[in-house]
């Protein structure tokens, strides 16, 4: 319908629907039209057309004030509630009373929403974009989901005022969130009362790319064990040891924790020996490490056990093959099986089995071959290394002790009776309570208990290879991937506040 000069505006104040507050009702001849006061769109204004199409237009009208949408939604709920009530098999008078009650309640709720003011219900496009980016980070969704047709349709029906974002736009939002979260973590590390221990883990993607994940482990001022990913760095397996060590040192300097570093937990591989030595030498030059770095190198317990099992299996392979051949021979014929059963049940066989068990428990059958193999192994398993590290710990105690004129914290601690053990005993809570009594020793406990004895999570304890990256983010650029991985770790820690058991992978409490 075209509006000409012959058309006249009809007074719509007598119309009951609130939608006419946003429309001008125009009459030309016998035809009525409704003109939106915000976007000037012309719709049917006939009384036979109803007002549903007008209400739907106002919801989607981008030029309309946002805070008035709640009024339409309230009226929509009122209509749905009224229709639901008419479906009940009430008598006529009861149904009328129920409808009046519901209509009155809906009107009061709508009035409350309108009285909240225009600013309280305004749609915030920027806030919604950042919420979308946080959702993608926290749950590991692919960034490309923002351009999926189904997702766009869902958003359009949920909030027509939301402007769709592109993959590049949501990537920029994720980077912005990463920078803000990184600043919070930086300030937290800067205020730590103790040292920071670092662990390094390898990740791999389906495309063959490899990444080095650096994780900070520490105990905060509330005596809670914390773990945060600091960097997720792209690495080249062909890089020399000095380049990898410098990559780690650069990360430590950027976080300003090189002077706060206490230990580094890494795989027990020969390729990492030179890397650890280079990092330790650089830190010792500035006297950043305790005990001249003797407590710095910590090899992952899970990795060490895996190498130990591999050595045992390799050593016992010949024996295992002979046992298998013997079993196959015995089961090869019925006569041989019967002869074997006769020997097993003979009286002298009991003494033979007993002697074998004694040999097993005394270590002759297991530990002697392993020890012989260990002499040719490159792993640090000899007693001199253990002795050196214990002497380094003794020196650490001496350096952090108080003056010799007074009784040290260690002396007072050793004079205390043993604390009774229980299933719910928390060593961190114990030190939190006794920190005023042992100020120096508690500082040492904070640093030592923050050392991860293994870099492998409990759910991945028996994995043999590098950790695999989820395919949703595997194709992202290295900088974007680092922002996603770090932000996800920081945000999940904040929301879920996980408190892992302190001694799940640690030694005895006493």
TrEMBL record:
InterPro entries in the record: HATC_C_dom, RNaseH-like_sf, Znf_BED, ZnF_BED_domain_contain, Znf_C2H2_sf
Domain BED-type: 14-69
Originating organism: Salvia splendens (Scarlet sage)
GO molecular function: DNA binding; protein dimerization activity; zinc ion binding
Record's keyword annotation contains Transcription: yes
Main location (coarse class): nucleus
Record's protein name: BED-type domain-containing protein
One of the GO BP terms on file: post-embryonic development
């Amino acid at each position: 319908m075209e509006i000409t000069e012959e058309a006249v505006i009809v007074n719509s104040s007598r119309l009951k629907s609130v939608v006419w507050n946003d429309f001008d009702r125009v009459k030309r001849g016998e035809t009525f039209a409704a003109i939106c006061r915000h976007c000037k769109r012309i719709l049917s204004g006939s009384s036979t057309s109803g007002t549903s199409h007008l209400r739907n237009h106002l919801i989607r009208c981008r030029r309309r004030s946002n805070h008035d949408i709640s009024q339409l939604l309230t009226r929509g709920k009122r209509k749905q509630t009224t229709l639901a009530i008419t479906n009940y098999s009430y008598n006529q008078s009861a149904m009328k009373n129920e409808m009046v009650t519901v209509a009155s309640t809906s009107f009061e709720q709508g009035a409350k929403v309108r009285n909240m003011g225009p600013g309280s219900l305004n749609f915030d496009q920027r806030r919604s974009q950042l919420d979308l980016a946080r959702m993608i980070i926290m749950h590991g969704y692919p960034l490309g989901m923002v351009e999926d047709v189904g997702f766009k349709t869902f958003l359009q029906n949920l909030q027509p005022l939301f402007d769709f974002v592109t993959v590049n736009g949501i990537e920029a939002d994720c980077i912005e969130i990463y920078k803000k979260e990184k600043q919070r973590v930086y300030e937290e590390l800067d205020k730590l009362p103790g040292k920071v221990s670092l662990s390094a883990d390898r990740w791999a993607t389906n495309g063959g790319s490899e990444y080095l994940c650096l994780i900070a482990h520490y105990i905060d001022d509330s005596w809670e064990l914390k773990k945060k990913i600091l960097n997720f760095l792209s690495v080249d397996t062909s890089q020399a040891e000095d380049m990898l060590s410098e990559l780690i040192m650069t990360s430590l300097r950027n976080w300003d924790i090189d002077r706060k570093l206490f230990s580094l937990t890494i795989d027990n591989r020969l390729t990492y020996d030179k890397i650890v030595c280079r990092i330790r030498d650089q830190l010792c030059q500035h006297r950043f490490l305790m005990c001249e770095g003797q407590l710095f190198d910590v090899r992952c317990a899970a990795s060490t056990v895996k190498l130990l099992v591999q050595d045992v299996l390799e050593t016992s392979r010949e024996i295992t093959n002979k046992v298998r051949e013997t079993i196959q021979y015995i089961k090869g014929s019925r006569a041989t099986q019967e002869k074997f059963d006769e020997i097993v049940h003979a009286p002298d066989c009991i003494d033979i089995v007993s002697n074998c068990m004694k040999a097993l428990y005394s270590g002759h059958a297991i530990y002697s071959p392993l020890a012989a193999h260990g002499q040719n192994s490159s792993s640090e398993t000899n007693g001199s290394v253990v002795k050196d590290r214990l002497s380094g710990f003794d020196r650490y105690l001496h350096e952090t002790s108080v003056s010799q004129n007074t009784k040290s914290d260690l002396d007072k601690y050793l004079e205390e009776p043993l604390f009774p053990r229980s299933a719910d005993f928390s060593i961190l809570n114990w030190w939190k309570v006794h920190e005023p009594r042992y100020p120096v020793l508690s500082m040492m406990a904070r640093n030592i208990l923050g050392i991860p004895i293994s870099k492998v999570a409990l759910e991945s304890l028996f994995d043999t290879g590098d950790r695999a990256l989820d395919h949703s983010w595997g194709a992202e650029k290295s900088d974007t991937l680092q922002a996603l991985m770090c932000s996800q770790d920081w945000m999940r820690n904040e929301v879920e506040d996980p408190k892992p058991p302190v001694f799940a992978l640690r030694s005895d409490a006493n």
